[in-house]
Design brief:
Blueprint: H1 5-8, H2 15-79, H3 81-94, H4 98-125, H5 127-133, H6 140-165, H7 170-205, H8 210-240, H9 242-251, H10 260-298, H11 305-342, H12 346-373, H13 375-382, H14 388-398, H15 401-417, H16 422-445, H17 450-476, H18 483-510, H19 515-540, H20 545-549, H21 554-563
Helix pairs in contact: 2-4, 2-6, 2-7, 2-8, 2-10, 2-11, 2-12, 3-4, 3-6, 3-10, 3-11, 4-6, 4-10, 5-6, 6-8, 7-8, 10-16, 11-12, 11-14, 11-15, 12-15, 12-18, 13-14, 13-19, 15-17, 16-17, 18-19
């Protein structure tokens, strides 16, 4: 990225400024993917509102339960493919080995064919077993409709990973948006149609659950339709990219052309640690679902399992919007770190590590405060229902998970990017054991119900942050900077939270009741929060002028900050 050299001359020189400029590209690429991730999450949030209106909290419980199983099988079969492929491709492109990078693509597609097909079969034929273990037998319908999607996502993951390995996040970003738009349209339509069919089935069979179960299955049909549309888009891009691939292969003067057997072995060895660490890291949701169902049944509260898990699903939908930024930054960070490691540039590795942690915290910390102080108006606006009070309370109780999950996600990516693939697995395993122990105590002894899931998840994320932080410090001789990364964003967020709460309270008093006016209240509070937080960061010195230049639209941001006298 070109910066305004004239404006930078009076700033700090040497390795500090050079390192910031070196890290700018990966931040920009991460920002592209983060912007797409936020848009995707917002589309997902807004289509879930009518979807949940159709299938109710019980249907959402079946939907969320099915998704937790789907997510684990997706991780085992294909979730790790974008990371592994991008890591391998980026390392070879850094050395000019274009023929080998193309062979990685072909080997990965074969892996997707086998692994994706096996995972889809397991989900289809094991649907009843999984649903019974969760104490939600009617979720089997949603599980089966999700099975083909796993196979589609395997191929999609390979293509996205290849493009990420070449240094561009645009294909992934655009395909994610296409995927979610199609998902939203099909999910709502299919859920409505199948819910009506479920009502008829209830009448015929003398039951009450088929409408919720069929509606949840309709919602999951959209997931497959969206994935298929995204795959078609990526295939189209790859077909158009063939000439560039051939030209790059002709320019390859390295003489290195790794065999498919060797590349497949390396791919497998790269994928396995990521699969294991990602599975351990994400299986907590499945275990939470299992133990929550078993625990509530043991306490004689079987009738509330699906409803409360559906409410938890609403909280999780909100929680994942800011965490999506950390996920996007991680997708950009891993190939970027792999190139720096391949080039043996320790300065860039340290700079990218520091930049990724700071950037994620600058988003996650205010999101945590915002969800806490605006929990009531946001949830009442998005998810109006009889269970609104419980949703508001668990959102406030679980808001801090945003910051801890964001930091643990980025720290996982750092360790994977510097080739310490087993370390996140070990750290996740330790955290998971403690997480389960705490969850069981809170469920069976303290009888905290859904709050046990909320608090045990926070403990899991905190442990991951601590263990990953220690590992990064040991492997990179990295010393975490606290003032600009944590202290100043926290101070700015507290000012922001006070301002947002004040605006929300004021508008809540002067505006009439109604969902439209509630939307005005939320919009005004969020708008004020963004302005106050940005001003706080700049006035307190959490972000300097050079760093502003390194951000997307950096020159405009600097001009605006100067005009408003926000730069110290």
């Amino acid at each position: 990225m070109k910066n305004n050299n004239r404006n930078q001359k009076h700033k700090s020189t040497g390795r500090g400024e050079a390192a910031k400029k070196a890290g700018a590209n990966f931040v920009v690429q991460g920002s592209i993917l983060a912007a797409a991730g936020i848009l995707v999450r917002l589309i997902g949030l807004f289509y879930r509102i009518p979807l949940m209106g159709i299938i109710d909290d019980r249907g959402n419980g079946y939907y969320t339960s099915a998704y937790s199983i789907y997510s684990i099988l997706l991780i085992i079969s294909s979730y790790s493919l974008p990371t592994a492929v991008s890591k391998m491709v980026s390392a070879r492109i850094a050395r000019g080995q274009y023929r080998s990078s193309l062979r990685i693509l072909k080997a990965a597609l074969v892996y997707a064919l086998i692994a994706g097909g096996l995972a889809a079969a397991v989900m289809w034929f094991g649907a009843d077993l999984f649903a019974g273990a969760m104490q939600m037998p009617y979720s089997s319908y949603a599980l089966r409709t999700l099975a083909p999607t796993i196979w589609i996502m395997a191929f999609l993951g390979v293509l996205r990973g290849y493009f990420q390995g070449t240094g561009t996040m645009v294909p992934t970003a655009v395909s994610q948006i296409i995927e979610q738009i199609i998902n939203a349209a099909v999910s709502i339509g299919a859920a409505w149609i199948l819910f009506q069919e479920g009502v008829k089935a209830n009448l015929v069979r003398g039951e009450t659950e088929y409408s919720y179960a069929f509606g949840a299955a309709g919602g999951t049909i959209g997931t497959g339709a969206g994935a298929l549309a995204a795959l078609a888009f990526c295939v189209f891009l790859m077909l158009n990219y063939r000439k560039t691939l051939r030209r790059q292969c002709r320019k390859d003067q390295t003489g290195v052309e790794e065999g498919y057997g060797r590349l497949s072995a390396i791919l497998t060895m790269t994928i396995l640690p990521i699969i294991l660490s990602s599975t351990v890291y994400n299986i907590s949701t499945v275990l939470d679902n299992f133990f929550f169902g078993q625990g509530m049944a043991a306490l004689g509260q079987t009738d509330v399992i699906a409803t409360q898990w559906g409410i938890f699903g609403k909280y999780h939908t909100l929680f994942m919007i800011p965490v999506a930024i950390a996920n996007a930054l991680s997708s950009s960070l891993i190939p970027s770190l792999s190139r720096a490691v391949a080039s043996r540039d320790k300065g860039q590795v340290l700079d990218k590590t520091a930049t990724a942690i700071r950037f994620s915290m600058m988003i996650a910390i205010p999101a945590t405060v915002g969800l806490t102080v605006l929990s009531a108006p946001i949830n009442n606006l998005l998810f109006p229902s009889k269970s609104g009070d419980l949703l508001i309370q668990i959102t406030m109780a679980g808001a801090s998970a945003v910051a801890f999950y964001s930091l643990s996600t980025v720290s996982n990516a750092i360790l994977q990017g510097i080739n310490h693939m087993k370390t996140p697995l070990k750290n996740a395993a330790i955290s998971l054991v403690i997480h389960v122990a705490v969850l069981l105590v809170m469920l069976y002894v303290l009888k905290w119900g859904i709050y046990a899931v909320i608090f045990s998840n926070i403990i899991f994320a905190v442990l991951m942050c601590i263990l990953n932080g220690r590992s990064i410090s040991r492997y990179l001789d990295y010393r975490q900077e606290y003032r600009k990364t944590f202290v100043l964003p926290i101070l700015s967020s507290l000012l922001m939270g006070a301002a947002a709460f004040g605006v929300s309270a004021l508008f809540g008093r002067i505006l009439p009741e109604g969902r439209l006016w509630l939307g005005v209240e939320v919009f005004a509070a969020v708008a004020v929060a963004v302005v106050v937080y940005a001003a706080g960061l700049l006035r307190l010195g959490a972000v300097d002028e050079v760093e502003l230049y390194g951000m997307p639209a950096g020159r405009r941001l600097v001009r605006l900050a100067r005009m408003l006298h926000l730069l110290p």
